[in-house]
Amino acid sequence: MVSQATQKLYINTGNLTEWNRLKGKFSQSSKSELQKCVDGTLTAWKESVDIQSLKDQEILTCRHEQFPSKISSDSLNDFEISAKIFALSGKSFDVKDALEQVIQELGITKVDNATLSLPPSVTDFSSDVQDIWQMMEQFVDNGHIQEIGICDFDLNQLSQLHDWSKIKPATNSVNLSTCCVIPPELVLYAKENNVRLLTHADLRDILDADYVKTTLNNYFSSENDNWQPIWVARYTALIKHRGIIKSKGYILRCDRIED
Amino acid sequence: MGILTNGTPLTWDEIKEYITLIKSQGIRQFISLYHRLSNRPNDILKWGDELEYMVVKFDHENKTARLYCEVDQYLDILQNFERENPGASPTSWKPEFTSYMLEASPGQPYLGDLAQINSVEANMKRRRREVIDLLDEDIVPITLTAFPRLGCPNFTYPAYEPDTNKRSSAPSLFFPWEVVGSHPRFKSFSQNIYLRRGSKVAINVPVFRDVNTPKPFVEHLQYGEEAIDGKEDHIYLDATGHGHGNSCLQVVTLQAYNVDEARLLYDQLCPICPIVLALSAASPIYRGFLSDVDCRWNIISQSVDDRTKEERGLEPLKNNKHRIPKSRYDSVDYYLSPEGQAYNDIELVYDKEFCEQLEKAGVDSILARHIAHLFIREPISVFKELLEQDDLKDSDHFENIQSTNWQTMRFKPPPLDADIGWRVEFRPCEVQLTEFENAAFAAFIILLTRVILTYGLNFYMPISKVDENMQTAQKRDAVRNGMFYFRKDLGKGKRFRITTYLNNSPPDESEYELMSINTIINGKADGFPGLVPLINDYLASLSIDVDTRYSLYRYLSLIQKRASGELKTTAKWMRDFVASHPDYKKDSVVSEKINYDLLYACNEIVQGKRQESDFIDNMESKTIDSFSTT
């Protein structure tokens, strides 16, 4: 039961590489992968908790306890840790929360690369985007992130960000299936300004309000019309030099929005 | 092919005196190796490929294409850079079984980051360029698995006569002695296989029955006594050169983290072997006839089959120790990991004394059996200079037996004297015409191993079913028509891997079922995930640079389309080319003219001058030569 007192909901899938994900239809997109993982996490979580004890919690965390993602500290050097934050609310304090959650989940002090993905509604280099970037720069200054990058920026947006920022974006990730040919001007700009062009396979609106509503209705049976997805974070811990993904998972947050 | 040291080869009679010495010392060498290196500290991923080229000389006036048997002169030049810059050469060249073949691999191993996969094609292209630069315009290197008119009259330049009069000790109706490569190891092989076996090797390839093909097809009868092992409705071949000279196989060797990971990958890749064999099928024509098979595997298997009549079960055991069901070149008989033991349902032939000796020395019983199984074979090529071995430094006697067991997978212990770890070699792939295709297959295999390790995939099924698949895979158009046993549920994730198989109950038949190659590779909507979707899932989890991702996209697209039948296999393309040739008389005969046109077309395809959109639709990748600054 998600009571009226609960304002924030975190869902944490734990380490997906340990799951049996091959049962049933194999999801082909990250959006459907995320949905499947959320369903799986909530199912496992519901079976393992005493619902009554959660009644009045303001912040509710549903985690898949069976598969923690923590990386042991003595092998940290072997790993390359990446995080992608889908900043669905577009606010810098939410992105800060997301990054902190990832760092905590993995039990590390430093993420090697953090990438920011903005929702499709963000089309220009607004002050909100600047706030987010500055906040991420602070993480770099504090030694918690090695390099920061952006997703799906065109030449215009990328050059604005690059010119304005204190810590320049190290990477810009594009979705090859939606833009099979990358504009040569973008390629040239990236090369000249030391921005690595990478690929991703995600949709920018990886979690929508409708899905949140339906899911909360399925699992928590209460009035859930006013929940909004705030952010989704995906982390990957890759064993460098061996190409094996040791840990991969999603954490997401939804908030109850007051009318 | 094996270790190529120079020296004086022993004759078969001389080898016979040393068999016991070599084998028992080889076992001791393995024991020593195992003790020193089984706990070798953790290794990173390094890997490589090997391509074999046949060099073809065109005569455009007379419309002939012949195998050019004078490549030795170029080998020295090709090896020069590596000799003078050890550890820094982009390419590495070796001689091969015949005097028209060259083998090349990357000079340095590829490493474990994904961007390295994007350098494979470029490195392969560099190798071809190095050879082309040395050759005259009408002489070209081609990566073709089987030369269509190998063994036909005048198939070589210069032309040689096959040795029907037994002047050499490895007579053949079709394969001239001069065509066997000049390195002493190769002639030594041919002779010793013949002498040990007690007769010529007998290769019978089922002929393709076309409208005008003679019924029955009894061509071998024209050759009389010399072709006594020939069969009706088969294309008869009688020399080791037909196999090892026909095989331009492309092999991927990869270094595992430690010995356990090597054993795991060896096992998990076994069921993949027949699938890749069917997908890469590229050899439908033998000795000028269209055959009913698309792959070279059985042909090579028969071409090095040194088993005596006793070992083959044709006579009671008297001089030989074991009845052996397979040639020393054939598919794997035995899984190597504890989890795989329940699936070892073939009765393994192994030397019981060696096995006991290995176990007493602390080698676990699974690995002991594997080594004792390899050691039922006798050495067929021995160099005088290597007879005396220092067990602290040498392992040549072990390597002698190890490297003359040619199986679909090879488990390779580290050498004593180099910083190299436990490795596995994936050996079933037929070589393709273009670098693009060869890189695609290499990428597919390497990515599949990463996916196996990331998700804890489980492909185990009874090894006898893998063998059945191997036979299915070689049939004409197996990729479209064949049904292959494959495991249905690929895993419950890494945690569950070990515990599931600790109870020794035999596996359930419902674990696997017959699937098409298309299902195995591309998956099915509401069932089997498919190998390529699994690879794509893995790739989607990583940030990959755009060039590498684009190349991988193109490579996987080729694999997918070959699997679905949207693109033809090389074998199918060759068959269709012959069938539609104006000179073809629907009698399965591939004449000199057809051969010339076919090879000319192959060369045009490689050079990008000929498009075949139902064979290779798009060869554009963004491969980058990692040695481009040199």
UniProtKB/TrEMBL annotation, chain A:
Residues annotated as domain NADP-dependent oxidoreductase: 90-249
Keyword Transcription regulation: no
Keyword annotations: Glutathione biosynthesis
GO CC terms in record: glutamate-cysteine ligase complex
GO molecular function: glutamate-cysteine ligase catalytic subunit binding; glutamate-cysteine ligase regulator activity
Pfam families: Aldo_ket_red (PF00248)
Pathway(s): Sulfur metabolism; glutathione biosynthesis; glutathione from L-cysteine and L-glutamate: step 1/2
GO terms under biological process: glutathione biosynthetic process
Complexes and interactors: Heterodimer of a catalytic heavy chain and a regulatory light chain.
Family: Belongs to the aldo/keto reductase family. Glutamate--cysteine ligase light chain subfamily.
Name used for this protein in its record: GCS light chain
From TrEMBL, chain B:
E.C. no: 6.3.2.2
Keywords from the named record: ATP-binding, Glutathione biosynthesis, Ligase, Nucleotide-binding
One Pfam family from the record: GCS
A single GO BP: glutathione biosynthetic process
InterPro entries linked to this entry: GCS (IPR004308), Gln_synth/guanido_kin_cat_dom (IPR014746)
Record field: catalytic activity: L-cysteine + L-glutamate + ATP = gamma-L-glutamyl-L-cysteine + ADP + phosphate + H(+)
Enzyme class: ligase
Pathway: Sulfur metabolism; glutathione biosynthesis; glutathione from L-cysteine and L-glutamate: step 1/2
CC per GO annotation: glutamate-cysteine ligase complex
GO molecular function terms listed in the Swiss-Prot or TrEMBL record: ATP binding; glutamate-cysteine ligase activity
Family: Belongs to the glutamate--cysteine ligase type 3 family.
PANTHER family referenced in this protein's UniProt entry, alphabetically: GLUTAMATE CYSTEINE LIGASE, GLUTAMATE--CYSTEINE LIGASE CATALYTIC SUBUNIT
Name the UniProt record assigns to this protein: Glutamate--cysteine ligase
